[in-house]
Structures are given as C-alpha cells and as structure tokens.
Amino acid sequence: MTIISELEYVPFPPDPHNYKPESRHSLVIDPVRPDGAYVKDLVLNFERLAAGEIIPVHVHTNEEVLIIDDGEAEAFYDGEWQPVGPGAVIMVPPGVAHGFRNRSGGSVRLHAVFAGHIVGTQLLERSPAAGTEDDPLPASSLIDFRKLSS
C-alpha cells in the first residue's frame, strides 16, 4: 500500500499542440515494488486548468474517469460542449472524443483516472502554441506514465 500525502504540481512539458502554459498537474502512479505489491494499472493525473486554457478534444485507447473537484468548465462529450462543475464525474470509454475548456475567470481543479499506465492518445483538435497555429494535428502517440514518473 502506498499513501501519498502531498501532490507536487508542476508545469506541463512544452507541447506545441496541447499548449497550457499557466496550467499545472501532478501525476500519481504507485511505485514499482520488488515484492509486486503495488497498484499496476491505475494512473491519476491531478490538474489545475488555468483560466482560458483548454484540454483539446482527443481520444484514448483506455478507459478514463474524470472528476471535477472545483471550478466551472465545459466538457466535450457525446459530440457537444456541456457545462460541468464541482462533483461532476465523467466516464469515458476508449475511443470516445472528450476535452475541456475553462471559460471561467479562475482555475478549474480536476483529476483523471486512467485504466492502465500505457495510454494511447490521438488529438482531434489542437491548443496551439503561438506561431504553430497552422501546424497539422500530430500522429497518435503512446504514453507510458511509468516512464514519465521515474
């Protein structure tokens, strides 16, 4: 069993397709133990989405659960933008397009739970960094959260 008492929020890595310069996140994954007694395939990503920033519409190869902890946002789900606030839980099956935009004046705190530490992602929209607005969508990618957290 692992207990994590404090989260360390850090800037997102620079990404010209998913540009969120003011947002912060904290990736939580149970460390590998030699005795095998650790949670192998659940990953949590806690995020503070800054005012005006977005999580572009995308799809994953894994199941995901999103929980809005604080603030007001809009979630893209079932083909439309819908308002969401504190306490909202969004269950996202693999391959279903989803995203968020913070239209409020403050930050939105949310967290995502991924089923699996290797997650495939395909952006369907971009949140471009300045000067990259005309760049094409990137290819699908696989993220191994265990490698990111080490």
SSE arrangement:
Blueprint: E1 10-11, E2 24-29, E3 42-49, E4 54-60, E5 64-70, E6 73-77, E7 80-84, E8 89-92, E9 98-101, E10 108-115, E11 118-123, E12 141-144, H1 145-149
Antiparallel strand pairs: 1-2, 2-3, 3-10, 4-9, 4-11, 5-8, 5-10, 6-7, 6-9, 11-12
Please explain how this structure is put together.
With 150 residues, this protein is mainly β. Helices cover 3% and strands 44% of the residues. The protein is built from one helix and twelve strands, in the order ββββββββββββα. The protein has one helix spanning 145-149; strands at residues 10-11, 24-29, 42-49, 54-60, 64-70, 73-77, 80-84, 89-92, 98-101, 108-115, 118-123, 141-144. The strands form two sheets. It has a six-stranded antiparallel β-sheet. The protein has a six-stranded antiparallel β-sheet with strand order 7-6-9-4-11-12. The longest helix has 5 residues, at 145-149. The chain is globular, with a radius of gyration of 15 Å. The mean pLDDT is 95.
Q: Can you write the helix and strand succession as a string?
A: EEEEEEEEEEEEH
Anisotropy-based shape: globular
Q: Strand sequence of the main sheet, in spatial order?
A: 1-2-3-10-5-8
Unreliable stretches covering 5 or more consecutive residues: none
Q: How far from one another are the termini? A: 19 Å
Measured as a percent range, the helix fraction is under 10%
Number of strands: 12
Largest sheet entry? 6 strands, antiparallel
Q: Structural class of the secondary elements?
A: mainly beta
By DSSP (H or I, 4+ residues per run), the number of helices equals 1
Q: Strand percentage, roughly?
A: 35-45%
Mean pLDDT: 95
Radius of gyration: 15 Å
